[in-house]
Amino acid sequence: MSARAWACAGLVVVVAIVLTIVLWPRSATPSTSARVESIASELRCPDCESQSIAQSSTPTARAARADIRRRIEAGQSDADIRQAYIDKFGESILWKPESGGIGILVWGLPVAALILGGAGLAFALARWRREPRLHATDADERLVEQQRAAE
Amino acid sequence: MRHRVRWIALSAAVIVAALAVVLALQVGDDPRADASRSQLTGTIAPSFDLPTLDGTSVRSADLRGKVVLVNFWNSWCAPCQEEHPALVEFFERHADEPGFAMVGIVRHDTREAIRSFVDEEGVPYTVAFDPGSRAAFDYGTRGQPETYALAPDGVIEASKIGPSSLGQLEQMYRVAKGSA
Amino acid sequence: MKASLGVLALALGTSATVLGVGTLALGLYRRDERLLRAGRRYVFLVLAAAVLAVGVMEWALLSHDFSIEYVAENNARATPLLFTITGLWAALEGSILLWGLILGGYLAVMAYKFRDRATDPLVAWATLTGLVVALFFFGLMLGPANPFKTLGTAPLDGRGPNPLLQNHPLMAFHPPMLYLGYVGFTVPFSFAIASLVTGRFGEGWLADTRRATLVAWGFLTTGIILGAWWSYEVLGWGGYWAWDPVENASLLPWLTATAFIHSVIVQERRGMLRVWNLSLVIATFCLTILGTFLTRSGVLNSVHSFTESTIGPVLLGFLGFVAAVGIGLIAWRGDRLRAPGRIDSPVSRESAFLANNLLFAGLAFVVLLGTVYPLLAEAIQGRELSVGEPYFDRMTTPIGIALLFLMAAAPALPWRATSGEVLRRRLLVPAWAGALAMLVAVALGARELAQVLTFGLAAFAVGGIVRQFWLGQRSLGLVRAVRGNPRLYGGLVVHVGVVLVALAIASSSVYTTRREVRLTRGQSAEVRGYEVTYLGSRTERGDQKTTVSARIRVERGGDDLGTYAPAISTFPGTPQGIGTPSVRTGLREDVYLTLISSPNRQGRVTIGVAVNPMILWLWVGGGVMAIGTLLALTPGSRRPRIARPAPAAVEEPVEPVGAPV
Known about the structure:
With 151 residues, chain A is mainly α. Chain A has 2 domains: 62 residues, Cytochrome C biogenesis protein (Helicase, Ruva Protein, domain 3, Orthogonal Bundle), CATH 1.10.8.640; 48 residues, no CATH class. Chain A starts with a helix and ends with a helix. Chain B contains 5 helices and 7 strands. Chain B has a 5-stranded mixed β-sheet, with helices on one face. In chain B, strands 1-2 form a two-stranded antiparallel ribbon. Chain B is elongated and about 85 Å long. With 661 residues, chain C is an alpha+beta fold. In chain C, the strands form 2 sheets. In chain C, strands 2, 3, 4, 5, 6 and 7 form a 6-stranded antiparallel β-sheet that branches. A 4-stranded antiparallel β-sheet of chain C has the order 1-10-9-8. In chain C, a hairpin with a 4-residue loop joins strand 8 and strand 9. In chain C, helix 11 packs antiparallel against helix 12. The chains are: A mainly alpha (151), B alpha/beta (180), C alpha+beta (661). At the B-C interface, helix 1 of B face helix 11, helix 12 and helix 13 of C.
C-alpha cells in the first residue's frame, strides 16, 4: 500500500473512532437541573416574546422554572409536565410544535422537500450520465455561444 | 414535458397565492387578542394564600361559597388603568351583596408603586401581593389585566384576558352566579 | 414649514418616478432613443428628492420640531444627538424614507454606470423596473406612511425613541446596513425582470449586476451580524439569535441571495441554471418585501417590532404584484430559457454548487415555514401554536452541517469531472486536519455530535482554504494570485468568516453556563471559575430615564478582570424596566452580567451571570466575511470569473466526459 492509501485508511479509522465515542449511548440519568433546563427550553415564556422559559428572567418564567422543579421532584414525567403546561396556557406554550396532526406540515414538509429535491438532482445527474450529450446538438451549442458572446 | 417550467411556475404561483390569502386573512388581526378567554375556564381555580396591602392575608379557601372576581393588575400597565374605573364601579354596585368578593392580585410590581397608586386612584376592593408570582403563574396569566370570575364552588366560570368593560364584568359575574 | 417642504420633496420624487416610468415606457414602445436617454435622467431627480426629504426630516429631528408627528413620537428634547440622528430609522415612516433614499442611491449609481448603454432595452427595462419599485415606496410615503404628517398642536416635548432603540450606538449602524442590503437586491431584480422581458436571457445581465449583488449581499451579511450583536448587547437574555420573526425576515433573503451568488458561477461557467437563477433573484426580492410585511403589519409578535401600522395590506398587495409579475414572466419565457447544459459527473464543482443550492433553498424553506406556520395553523385549524428555537435548531443544524461539509470539500473539486486520485491529493491533508480537530474536541470532552462535526468540518474547511492560498503563493505569489482572481480568494476569505461564525455558534449553543445569584453588598458568588462580587449600586436620575446600576467585580483565579455595571433603566411613559447587560468580552469566553432585580429592602440584588464561550468570534467572523466581500469586489487584473486555479489546471488532465469516478 502506498503512503497515500495508508493515510486514507488512517483517516477512516480516526473518524470512525470519533463517531463511536460520540454516538456511544450514555445511560446516565440527567440531573434534576438538567431536566428543568431541557423542559423549560421547550416551553415559551408566557409573558415575553421569542424567549423560552429557560432563557427569560421575568417573574413568571422564574415561577415556572420553580414549578417545573417541584413537579419533577414530585415524580412527574416530562410528558406529564408538558401536558400540564398545555392545560394551563394552551398549546401555544410549546416552543416546538407537536409532530402529530397538522404538525406533520411543519416537520414533514421540509424533509420531504429536501428528499424530493435530492432525488430530482440525482435523477437528473443519472440521466445526464446515461445519455451523453443527447439533448444538445452542435447547433444548440453554437446558439448558446453566440448568445453569450453577444452580451 | 414541453412546458415544464410553465408547470413549475404555475405551482409556485398557487403556493404563493395560498400564502398570500393566509397572510391577508391575518392582517389587522392582533395576535395578542386572539385568546381572550383563559385556558383554565371551566376548571377548579388554583388556590392561593396571599398577603394583602392592609397587612392581612387573603386565602382562596376562605372565599369558597362566594362568587369571587379575581383581577390581575399592576400600577404601570396602561390597559389596567384603562379598565380601573369599570372595576371600581362594578365593585361598588355589588359590594353589599353577601355572596360576593373581589380581589385585585398585583402582578410584577413593587409595594411602593401600588401604595401610591391606591392612595391616588383609590382601590376599594382587596389588593393582594403575589410574592414569587406563584398565583400569577398558577392562573396561567400571560400579562395583565386578566380577570377571572369564580363560582361559589371554586370553578372558573368566566375569564377575560385584557381590559374588561363594565358590561363584560357584569356578564362574567352573572355567569359565575348563575352556575351556583 | 418643514412638513410642507418634506411633502413637496416626496411629491417631487413621486412625480419624477411617474415621469421616468412613463418616458421609458414610451421610449421602449416607440424605440425612441431620445426618450430612453431622457427617461434615465429622472433617476437622478428621484435621488435628489429623496436626499431633500431625508434632509428635511433630519433637520426637523435636530431642531426638535414636534409639530411633525413622527418627530414628536420618536424624539424628545433630552434625546442625545446620536439617537436624534438615528431617529430617522426608529420607526416605520422614517425607515421607509431611508429605504427611499437608499433605493434612489442604488438606482442613480446604476444609471450612472450604464450611462453609455442608456438606449439598450435591457438597461432601459431595468431602470424602468427600479423606478416602479421606487414609485411604490414614494407612493407609500405620500399615502399611508407619510413621515411628514403634522399635529394640530405641537406638544412641548416629544415622546422620545423606544427605550430599546436609544440604548446602544450599534443602533446607528445596524438598520442602515440591513436596508443597504435589502434595497440593493432591487438592482439584480430589475435586471432579471429586464432580461426576461427583453428575452436576452444570456449571461449578460449577470455580469452587469454581479457587483451590485455582492455589495447588497455584503451589506445584508454585515447588517444581520450587527443585529445579532445589538441583540446580545442590548436585549439582555444572553443570546444573539432568537429565531424571532424579524430576525428570520432578514435571514430569508440572505439565504436565497447566498444560494444565488453560488449558482451564478455555474451559469457563468456552463450556461446552465438560467431559470433557477432568475427565480432566486426574484425570490430574494420578494422575500425582502415579505420580511417588511411580516414585521411591519403586526401579524406576528416579535421582540423587534417597535411599530405596527396600517400599511400591511399595501405591502401585501405589492408583494403579490411583484410575485405575479416575476412568476408570470418566468412562465412565459421559462421554457425557451432552458439551456442545453448538462453535468457530467456527480463529483464535480457544478454538482457541488447544485447541492449547495438545494441545501440553501431547503434552509430558506425551513425558516419561512417555521415563521409563518403559526399563521397557517390558525388559518387552517384555528389553533394557536408557536414555533421557536427548539424547532429551528433541530431543523437547521443538519442542513448547516451539510453546508459546512460542502464548503470544506467543494472548492477543491474540479469542474466537469474528477477522479478519486485527484480528490485524494487535494482533500487528504485538509480532511486529516478535520479528523484531528474532532479527535481533540472529543479528547477535551465534547460529546454532542453536531458540535464535534462542526469543529471537524471547520478545520477541514480551513485546511482546504490554506491549501488554496498556498497553491496561489507557490504559482504566482499571493498578491498576483489574488489580484488575478479576487472573486475566488475573496470568496475563500468569506468562507473563513463563515467558519468562525460556525465555531462560535457551535460552542455557545452548548457550553453556555447561566446562573442567577442573589447577593448583598460585598458578597460574592462563583460561576464557572469566575468570582463575581457585588460592590454596591448607584441610582442616576435624568430627565429621560432613571438608571439603577450595580457594580460587579469579576475575578478569575485571583486576577481582577475589572468592574462591570449591569443596569436597569426606567423611562417615563414606558413602565417596564429595560435591562442593560454588561459584558466582559474575552477571546475565549464572555462573562455576561445582567441586573435582574435592583436592590430590595435588605439591599440584595439578583444578578444574572452567564459565561458564553467564543462569542467574540461571531463578530470577528462577520468582519472577516465583510472583508472577504470587499476583496471579491476589487477589480481583478483579468475578467473576474471563477476558474480552476491555474496550477491545478496544469497539474491534472481533465477526465474524459462520463468516465467512472
